Amino acid sequence: MPDAESSKPVSKPDAVLAGLARLRALAAQFATQAPSVELAESAVELEPQTEPAPAAEPLVEPEPEPKPSPKSESASDAVVAVRPTLSHDLEAASGDIVLEVRGLSKGFGDTVAVNDIHLNVRAGVFYGIVGPNGAGKTTTLSMITGLLRPDSGTASVNGVNVWDSPEVAKRSIGVLPDRLRIFDRLTGSQLLYYSGVLRGLDAPEVRKRSADLATAFGLDDVMGRLVSDYSSGMLKKVALAAAMIHSPRLLVLDEPFESVDPVSAATVTRILKQYVDAGGTVLLSSHRMELVQRVCSHVAVIVEGTLLADGTIDEVRNGMSLEDRFVQLTGKNSSGGGLEWLSSFSD
Amino acid sequence: MVEQFLRLKLTLLANTFRRGPLIASSMALVMLYSAVLFIIAIVAVASLRETTPEIAGVTLVVFGSIVLFGFLIMPLGWNADDPLDPRRFSYLPVSRLHLALLLLLGGAVSIPTIMLIGLGVAQVVAWSGGAASALIAVLSALIVILTAVVGARLSSLIAARYLSTRRLREAFGIIAVTVVIASLPLVVFLALSDYQSQVLPALRRAAAVLEWTPLGAAFSAPAASAAGDSGEVLAKLSISLGFLAVLAAGWYLLIGYVLSRPERSAVETYRSGLGWFRLMPATPLGAIAARSLSYWARDARYFVALAAIPIIPIGMVAALLVGGIGADVIAWIPVPVMCLFLGWSAHNDVAHDNTALWTHVSAHTHGADDRWGRIVPGLLVGIPLAIVGSIITVTVVGNVVALPGLIGLSLCVLFAGLGVSSVSSAAFPYAAPLPGHGAFIQPQALVSNAATVQSFTFALSALFAVPVLGVVFFNPFTELQPNWAAFLVGVPLGLIVLVIGVYWGGRIMVRRGPELLALSSQN
């Protein structure tokens, strides 16, 4: 176990701590999973974000961490402990763009679901996409992850076009779709094993990672149950674990906090923050504004398929709370009028 | 309210035929088949009038008990949601007694009940020799019909309540299918043996017990009346009336219980370990194969369809036997037909994944890995079936020379069927039952090409049997024994189709992955 974890305030249960520690080491290893062509650059992006201490801090603190790049303390941290050979040459690429979206558009019949969206997501960023129901968030994320073919535009991960070279690009992406089924007649451990092996991991590695993920997400007790018997919150967590098992460079999560209870949401947030601190990038969609404001460093607002604003949280919210700014941007604050009959009760 | 219930039930009956052409036509076949059986049974029962009261009594007690037992037990294994589940009507502003009666009425409007009424009438005809016994027969027919209706409702309620876990219900369904298959030889044996000398003694022994059980008591009351024993008549009628009262009370009480308790959640079973995943190699292909195998074992959509496969050739063989076709020709039917259906059963595999397919799309799984993995269960079951089944067939028929030809034909249609399925499940998926539903619940779809794809893939798979059969019966390779020639033609032919199918289907799969996913989410 990497010793970096010893610096944590020891208030969390041991099991979770241990799981987190292993998970952190795991996240740090993702460079080795990247295709060999990009091995050099992938090593590059690891380190600059890995401020060791803040990772462990209480997650309620709303401070949206600014770019951590200037603090170039060269890591005494998990990454080094696990992969000492990768720790050189780590400064250069802190500003690397992990995800580049250029003019993505998609229509279904006559309706335009997504209209010419441009996004740049840098490495080590916790990026939130917010928007009202039906704004095109899921459509956008599906096109980025290679699950839905766009009408026009491109999405590139690490400079690799998702739709031209999916076999390379998809290796660096971990996906948590919303409202798509998973193979729920498998047990939790079978599902994680399945996801890991499909991503090309070998059996001992998958077993080790599944155990770590189960511990970190608090799923240890239910790993032997059929996923179809899970509650919806457990379902989200196991799907998230399955998305992370191949230690992708970019996690694309559609509504990861929907139907997740507050305690689990805190666990998930903590795990994701650690992942980001270790150099990973998270792109998530949500309509829980206060959560996005607290967790994410950057945010994009999509309304009716169009990108209305993007940037750091502070840039976008412009002095207001994110929620107020969001309502202002969407320009719709429906009055609730026309329901007068509702106050004349029927009995 | 009564009128609405009757209309609801009639609509439900009519809707049985509106679930796609394949289901409608097979339902029509089943109904035609049962109508024929029904008429034969009615005529047989009515003609018991010509025999002695003793023979009529014994026969009616035994077969009547079996019918009544069927009414009580079949709903337990019925692998579908009960449309007349009391919980669905709990919001109606009617009293519990009223609801209980309405549901009984709804349950009574069903094809089995109509048949039972016919049987009751025939039974009255059988006893119409004497006025007293005819009167008792009317009475016992009424009791039997009421018992069947109430008992069937009670068992469906018990099934919905206590067999609600998927596993239990599926287990029950399999037991039911097994019992039906296992009883077929018994029926053939009965049909072939002499009724008077061989069957009747056995029936007498069974009837001696059954006539005093609630199942047989009502059926034997008219016989007792014909024999002039009014004390026995009274005793038997009270036994059957008592049973009816117990069932009715149970029905009424259970409705109250079900309506006032929350739905029972499934018992969760804990499985340690990885199951099939441990046995298969840790490659994408192995994992997909292990996943398919787990689904074959756990998902009703797969194993109910599979359980039907052995039944089809039994029906074909029976029909051909009746038609007087020789055993040397019939020997070529059962095993190849089973292999054909086994290979064909994978033709819509991708659609069965529903939107879970995204896992493969987002991992960019190799097409061939995906295709091979999905057909591994078919190969694991099919190859032993082809070999062992062929050995059994030639042993039964006594034509050992045909063994290589039979194996060659079976493997050929198995491989070819899997090859065709590999292409069609990627190229022409159609709306499949959703995960968690039964195998025969066809989803609603505006436009479904189900019938076209089903018949086309089936015909194409069957087509590959033609050259092999041609070699067997008109051997062009004169220097070879025809059966060995068939083996040498069949196996490579099947393998070639299989490999082409897998790689072609795999390419389609990868190229059209996102489109397949979009299709499955409309489903």
The major pleated sheet of chain A works out as: 6 strands, mixed
Fraction of residues of chain B in helices?
over 70%
- CATH T-level topology of chain A: Rossmann fold
Strand content of chain B: under 5%
**H and E string of chain B:** HHHHHHHHHHHHHHHHHHHHHHHH
Number of domains as seen in the coordinates of chain B: 2
Oligomer: heterodimer
Q: How would you sum up the global shape of chain B? A: globular
Q: How many domains of chain A, as an integer?
A: 1
Q: Helical region count of chain A?
A: 13
Distance linking N and C termini of chain A: 67 Å
Q: What is the assigned CATH homologous superfamily of chain A?
A: P-loop containing nucleotide triphosphate hydrolases
Task: State the end-to-end CA separation of chain B.
Answer: 35 Å
Mean pLDDT of chain B: 82
Q: Can you characterise this structure?
A:
The complex is a heterodimer of chains A (347) and B (523). Chain A has 347 residues and is an alpha/beta fold. Chain A has a single domain, classed as P-loop containing nucleotide triphosphate hydrolases (Rossmann fold). In chain A, the strands form 2 sheets. In chain A, strands 6-7-8-3-9-10 form a 6-stranded mixed sheet, with helices on both faces. In chain A, β9 and β10 form a beta hairpin. In chain A, α1 packs across α8. The longest helix of chain A has 16 residues. Chain A is globular, with a radius of gyration of 20 Å. Chain B is mainly alpha-helical and 523 residues long. Chain B folds into 2 domains: 240 residues, no CATH class; 245 residues, no CATH class. Helices cover 76% and strands 0% of the residues of chain B. Chain B has 24 helices and no strands. Chain B is globular, with a radius of gyration of 27 Å. The interface between A and B is large, with 40 and 41 residues.
